[in-house]
Amino acid sequence: MANFSKSQVPQFSVEVYQNAFLPEGGREVNAIVTVTSTGGGTTGGIPLADAAPAYGAGQGPGAAVVLMVDCSGSMDYPPTKVRNARDATAAAIDTLREGTQFAVVAGTHVAKDVYPGNGRLAIADAQTKAQAKEALRKLSAGGGTAIGTWLRLADRLLNSADVAIRHGILLTDGRNEHESPEDLRAALDSCAGRFTCDARGVGTDWEVKEVTGVAAALLGTADIVADPSGLAADFTRMMENAMGKEVADVSLRLWTPVGVEIRFVKQVAPTVADLTARRTEANARAGDYPTGSWGDESRDYHVCVLVPEAGIGQEMLAARVSLILPDPSGAGTPQTLSQGLVRAVWTDDMVASTSINPQVAHYTGQAELAQVIQQGLDARKSGDFDGATAKLGRAVQLASASGNQDTAKLLSKVVDVVDAATGTVRLKAKVAEADEMTLETRSTKTVRVKK
Questions:
Q1: What residues are paired with 247 via a beta bridge?
Q2: Rounded-to-integer distance, Cα 182 and Cα 190, Å
Q3: What gap in Å lies between CA 10 and CA 297, rounded to an integer?
Q4: Is residue 277 within 8 Å of 230, Cβ to Cβ?
Q5: Contact between residue 286 and residue 298 where contact means Cβ atoms under 8 Å apart
């Protein structure tokens, strides 16, 4: 466990957006919780004794990163693919902050730590970066794909580091054919909460649900790099983002009174991720939902609860949302970084009780957008073209209404849009595999509410 002392951590704020008014007999309460983190490692932060890793201003917290590079046989087709992967990993290594601990893992049907080796981590400086890039030049393609073994090795390496931020970057170009889905799930369950991981699929021969599943389980990002020549720029951006993280293991704690049921807790921006099943009990009335590592950024969460029925004029606290930073020793009291309240007020004013909060309406639509894209693509793959047309038409309608232009552009490569406002579309007869995979991989990306 890292050494901790009084230090600056980002200033966290919580804002709650909701319509608190319910009609008589109404029970469902929805709220959008916006969490913003600013000023990490600067005078804009707040001192937290024994709660945040000690680091000098501008240096960031201690971090460890493991880069997992697919070296299976398919990476040799075409030969430029493995060369692009080596170049991208080298670019990521160049982006490492001085003093960051790191390792490179070559992944096939087994996992091998090719630098620095022997189960160790290197300390990033000019010499070790040069040595790591030299080790990369020796990588060649051959063997199968067993992503779970790569993640387990990364976990062992990262767990040896006495740091606050533990991060993985995983690149694959193929399907996880040399271990069972159960083996991969077990590896993800084992690694969840221990490090975050960004996952990338290169080319078009990998399985979208495997790559997005890794990112979802390990609270990272997922994306496609259809053209391997784009890997270096993508890896550089990923590493810059990882180096910007200041605080790890922040949880969203939801306290609810007796009689209140939790329907769901979802992250809804910048991507949709259902956190409901990832709750861990904090005490009899509260549970924690993992949010991973934070730098200077803002995210939105949708909280939905069912409250007991009450009469007109009654008011109650439906939930209290807190941001929690655990005591690093595991023995002390967790730090509450910020909190907000979700209320319920029963009224006979029909206008007040039937009005939908704009943030709630927007993100309900964005969550549905992600869902209908997945359903539409699955229907298309199974030959249900009527079902695919209906679902993807609804997706076009939602993307247009919410101003999600990036998703609208991706949809236009899969369907011909007749009328976006009504969701009238025709399936394209021929769709490039890269376009379909890009839409599926990026389907959970959302846009913020227009202010």
A1: 294
A2: 12
A3: 10
A4: no
A5: no
- The 10 Å Cβ neighbour count of residue 28 is 13
Q: What is the SS3 assignment for the chain?
A: CCCEECCEECEEEEEEECCCEECCCCCEEEEEEEEEEECCCCCCCEECCCCEECCCCCCCCCEEEEEEEECCHHHHCCCHHHHHHHHHHHHHHHHCCCCCEEEEEEECCCEEEEECCCCCCEECCHHHHHHHHHHHHCCCCCCCCCHHHHHHHHHHHHHCCCCCEEEEEEEECCCCCCCCHHHHHHHHHHHCCCCEEEEEEECCCCCHHHHHHHHHHCCCCEEEECCHHHHHHHHHHHHHHHHCCCEEEEEEEEECCCCCEEEEEEEEECECEECHHHCEEEECCEEEEEEEEECCEEEEEEEEEECCCCCCCCEEEEEEEEEEECCCCCCCCCEEEEEEEEEEEECCCHHHHHCCCHHHHHHHHHHHHHHHHHHHHHHHHHCCHHHHHHHHHHHHHHHHHHCCHHHHHHHCCCEEEEECCCCEEEECCCCCHHHHHHHHHCCCECCCCCC
Structure tokens at 22: 């319910």
**Which one-letter amino acid corresponds to residue 183?**
D
Rounded CA separation 172/364 (Å): 32
Partner residues linked to 267 by β-bridges: 273, 301
pLDDT in tens, the chain (451 residues): 333 333 456 799 999 999 999 999 999 999 999 999 997 543 233 333 333 333 333 344 689 999 999 999 999 888 888 899 999 999 999 999 999 999 999 999 999 999 999 999 999 999 999 999 999 999 999 999 999 999 999 999 999 999 999 999 999 999 999 999 999 999 999 999 999 999 999 999 999 999 999 999 999 999 999 999 999 999 999 999 999 998 999 999 999 999 999 999 999 999 999 999 999 999 999 999 999 999 999 999 999 999 999 999 999 999 999 999 987 666 678 899 999 999 999 999 999 999 999 999 999 999 999 999 999 999 999 999 999 999 999 999 999 999 999 999 999 999 999 999 999 999 999 999 999 999 999 999 999 987 5
pTM of the model: 0.90
